[in-house]
Hints:
The protein is mainly α. It contains 21 helices and no strands.
Amino acid sequence: MPEMTSKTATGREASEADAVPAARRVWTLVLAGLGAFLCSLDVVVVATALPVLRTHLGASLSDLEWTINAYNLAFACLMLTGSALGDRFGRRRIYVTGLAVFTAASAACALAGGAGALVAARVVEGGAGALVAARVVEGAGAALLLPLTLTLISDVFPVEKRGAAIGLWGGITGLGVAGGPVLGGAITDGLAWQWIFWINVPVGLVMIPLSATLLRESRGPRPHLDVPGQLLAGLGMFALTWAPVRAPSAGWDSPEVAGSLAAGAVLVAAFLLWERRAAHPMLPLAYFRLRGFASANAVIFLLAVSLLGALFMMTQLFQVGLGDSPLQTGLRLLVWTGMPMVAAPLAGALADRIGPRPLMAGGMVLQAAGLGWLAAVTAPDVSYGTLVAPLVVAGAGTGMVFATTAGAATAAVPAGDAGVAAGTNTALRELGAVFGIAILAAVFAHSGGYETPASFIDGFKPALWVASAVAAAGVVAALCVPAKARAVPADSAASAGPRSAASRS
Length: 505
């Protein structure tokens, strides 16, 4: 009887996806892709303006880290809450709510007047709890938005077409990554840094009514919120991130840094213990007994550590180390950030035929090789032509991994749990970005500084070597991904509890 129930549930999910009109699928892909575009754009568009913020606002290295990390950390810690709210109240409804909140918060960022205010506004935009409770609720927009993009796509595309759809989603997301540095540089040079946030507002205002009318409403199987788990995870991640951010100025052996690391470890351990016993956990730990889910998430975490840490350093290399303007920096980075637009759709379509493992492993090899190549050739007098080839190699690898990790993670769980799986995958990606920026900035501060272009490059090179090593570790994780994704019955894996999950590991 359980086997018959599983087949019936799986068939029902497939038939519902098959019955979705083609026009709705197209609109879902466009609107969900644009939501992901906004979120990815809002990270990288700031990166090009970092040297300007450092000089115009008197921001320190720590301020620059938190300008990006406050967004990423809040984003990551609330991601699974966004998925749970979608399951409970309707994914279309929460997606539209996220768009509205994100758009309003972008305007708040544009109105920030100093480094401290900018950091606070970035926290609001990402949805963290650094402001008053009402602002926390208002600021959850990005965390509501991004995890539901993959869920909305998975809901209307059958399994055999989902890889290509997610590949296109990755290409649209890549457009935000590709265009962000160029757009940020052009705006910073031509207008003012505040306008890098204003650009979100008209896009959001157009998307809100379109999403409310054209997206299909759906709900998921996990309607309850895990508030204690949310608090423990958020506080633990904040403490673990605070340590490497503060270490360059306070010292790794200072009570502040050591205490932060210890507190973070205790809070994360408490979070894991709670999740094992919670009736409705925000992160079902049984998922991590599924080889496809666990390995795909390890890959995206390690990719984000290396990628965002490297981006944080590269945007400053061109301006501080090589003397380029913000616009020149954005244009020169395009050979790197633009590659996912090309590689992600191709890799997504190919994954449906050959499986995600070779593409993930190959992508991480290219990422590690490209970043290591950059570290080896960068010098105070290096020409841009010398940097082009390694940037292209690293960018192609990024696109291959972006297109396949999300699909592998969601394919490892029942279709009804795709929201939680997608939210977990995205949350780990954002946490990887947080730790990548913090770790590479700490390595940079240990070996170099902003005093001269040469001193900047002295810190840049070891930081990029660390990014390359992290990407190389991702190759090992990618080789653990199952060779071929397959549909999972609705009553298996985490839905049936840890024992069932363990049987599929």
